[in-house]
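F.,

This is the one I mentioned.
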């Protein structure tokens, strides 16, 4: 069996800059919208800066001259206030424009990213899923994507807006009073030092939080799937203990990250108040000395607030960026995981038998398949798919350390039924995994109709095989759709014929909506035996040259098993069949039975031969006979 899921601890981003640039490579497709976003940000920031500057003429040109006046003329002031209102209204429009467009850009980018993730996932090797929990992979689609959404839709616009505001505000501060600006820069240096220190602390724990959240999600999903097993063995307390530990780790990382992040606001706000007070005092002294006007001081003090606020926002956005980059790296790790290597060039095609006995490729399904083998001259030859499968000195290890199969050699002639028996971990399922090329052999080779399977395209290889697994998986949809999953172009009549062949038709017709009954939660509304019958029907509708049954009848009672086997006899006719079974009664009629122990074939022969040998198979069979 393949190795189980591994725990992946917290890792720092290998290259934050490269990850950041890669995120933006997905945004380039929205260049025009991004240009409008930039225009909206500049308009919004410019309006706020210009509106603040208008305090200087309003105070100096209108309010100060009115001091001591009995009847001031308000017309000019009303005009200035109206102009200020128009400027701020323009800023509101700019803010709405860039916010709305950035939402469109971020959702479009994430749509593309999810599509790439899901498409790439379909081409990942089975080894990838064996080494990770489902929840960990799901966390990539949910938590990590959501962190990127927040960064793109809110963080980046706020970051750019803050930068534009800082530049514009600083420029206006220099124009109004270089001396007061120098004082503000001294305070700004202190703010930057504090920001860098706190951002480094919080960023570390934000990354750890993403990793902890992934482990919690993975554990929750695993426990949901195995809830019956938990209850059967009364492990509720043990499960709760493990979850409490994972949850506590998540709480610690989250609370620590947020603690550091939340320190930023109060510290920056108080420093802002100190800066404001110092600036007001210094500005008052300058005004008394006649170095500046009251209007300039009033505008400068507002700019001081506007200068501190975007700096605080920048520091807060750094936390969001760190969290998003941690998630983005996990996403790109999945995207960068090498897909299954498929160096094959032989494909399986529908074929038509000509009058002279030769084969010709055709589009229609004829029930005859052929291997289309390329030739050096650019042409090809057709070889009928018969199901001749041979393993020659196959040695295999999942992890490169523990050998699972040792020098396995066997053959299956077309139409033969080959059975594998042996204890758990003997290597039975591994052989079928290798025939499907879920894994590739390290030594030896597997030959299919005289063609090494590494030369056959994986899609064609797997299309020539149908598997019925011990762990049945049904998809959300109708019974008919689940059976048709074996061959999507199967007609309703073919679906029902396959169900009858698998002895599933009777119970299906007694479901509330028959074949149109909707199955959910992996067919939880069916018994385990009924689910297995649907899996067999799915393989039957595929009608392949080779059939692999991995404990296919393990969840079915002996009476139903006998009915299925009679139906399966017709399905297995003229097909090569590999059977894995613990129940030895299901393999008695096999042409050859391979007894495996610790990755080696220790006995082979048909049922009568093995009984005569009185070896391991004899002991297993007699033990079952006594139990029955």
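My design for it:
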């Amino acid at each position: 069996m393949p190795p189980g899921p591994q725990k992946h601890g917290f890792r720092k981003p290998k290259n934050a800059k490269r990850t950041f640039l890669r995120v933006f490579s997905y945004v380039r497709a929205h260049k025009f919208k991004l240009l409008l976003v930039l225009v909206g940000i500049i308009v919004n920031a410019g309006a706020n800066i210009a509106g603040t500057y208008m305090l200087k003429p309003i105070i100096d040109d209108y309010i100060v001259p009115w001091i001591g006046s009995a009847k001031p003329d308000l017309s000019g002031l009303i005009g200035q206030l109206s102009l200020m209102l128009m400027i701020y209204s323009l800023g509101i429009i700019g803010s709405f424009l860039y916010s709305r467009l950035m939402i469109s850009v971020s959702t479009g980018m994430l749509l593309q990213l999810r599509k790439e993730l899901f498409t790439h996932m379909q081409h990942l090797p089975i080894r990838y899923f064996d080494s990770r929990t489902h929840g960990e992979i799901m966390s990539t689609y949910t938590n990590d994507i959501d962190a990127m959404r927040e960064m793109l839709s809110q963080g980046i616009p706020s970051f750019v807006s803050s930068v534009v505001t800082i530049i514009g505000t600083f420029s206006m501060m220099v124009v109004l009073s270089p001396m007061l600006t120098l004082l503000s820069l001294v305070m700004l240096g202190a703010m930057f030092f504090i920001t860098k220190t706190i951002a480094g602390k919080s960023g570390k724990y934000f990354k750890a939080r993403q990793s902890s959240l992934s482990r919690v999600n993975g554990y929750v999903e695993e426990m949901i799937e195995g809830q019956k097993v938990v209850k059967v063995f009364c492990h509720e307390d043990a499960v709760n203990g493990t979850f409490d530990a994972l949850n506590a780790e998540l709480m610690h990382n989250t609370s620590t990250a947020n603690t550091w992040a939340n320190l930023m606001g109060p510290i920056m706000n108080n420093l802002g108040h100190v800066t404001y007070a110092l600036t007001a005092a210094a500005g008052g002294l300058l005004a008394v000395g006649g170095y500046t006007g009251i209007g300039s001081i009033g505008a400068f003090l507002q700019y001081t607030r506007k200068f501190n606020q975007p700096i605080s926002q920048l520091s807060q956005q750094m936390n969001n960026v760190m969290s998003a980059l941690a998630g983005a790296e996990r996403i790109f790790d999945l995207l960068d995981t090498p897909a299954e290597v498929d160096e094959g060039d032989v494909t399986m095609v529908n074929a038509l038998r000509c009058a002279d006995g030769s084969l010709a490729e055709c589009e229609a399904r004829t029930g005859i398949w052929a291997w289309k083998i390329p030739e050096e001259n650019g042409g090809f030859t057709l070889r009928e798919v018969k199901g001749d499968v041979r393993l020659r000195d196959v040695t295999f290890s999942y992890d490169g350390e523990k050998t699972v199969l040792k020098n396995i050699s066997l053959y299956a002639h077309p139409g033969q039924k080959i059975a594998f028996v042996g204890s758990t971990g003997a290597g039975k399922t591994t052989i079928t995994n290798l025939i499907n090329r879920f894994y590739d052999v390290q030594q030896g080779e597997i030959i299919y109709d005289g063609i090494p399977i590494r030369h056959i395209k994986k899609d064609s290889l797997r299309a020539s095989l149908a598997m019925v697994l011990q762990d049945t998986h049904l998809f959300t949809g109708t019974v008919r759709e689940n059976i048709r999953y074996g061959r999507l172009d199967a007609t309703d009549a073919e679906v029902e014929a396959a169900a009858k062949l698998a002895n599933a038709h009777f119970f299906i017709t007694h479901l509330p909506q028959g074949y149109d009954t909707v199955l959910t939660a992996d067919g939880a509304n069916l018994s385990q035996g009924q689910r297995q019958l649907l899996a067999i029907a799915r393989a039957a509708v595929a009608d392949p040259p080779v059939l692999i049954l991995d404990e296919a009848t393990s969840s079915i009672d002996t009476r139903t098993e006998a009915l299925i086997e009679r139906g399966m006899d017709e399905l297995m006719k003229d097909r090569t069949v590999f059977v894995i079974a613990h129940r030895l009664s299901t393999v008695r009629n096999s042409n050859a039975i391979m007894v495996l122990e610790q990755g080696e074939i220790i006995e082979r022969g048909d049922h009568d031969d093995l009984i005569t040998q009185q070896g391991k198979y004899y002991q297993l069979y007699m033990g079952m006979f006594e139990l029955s």
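Residues 236-288 form the longest helix (53 residues).

Talk soon.
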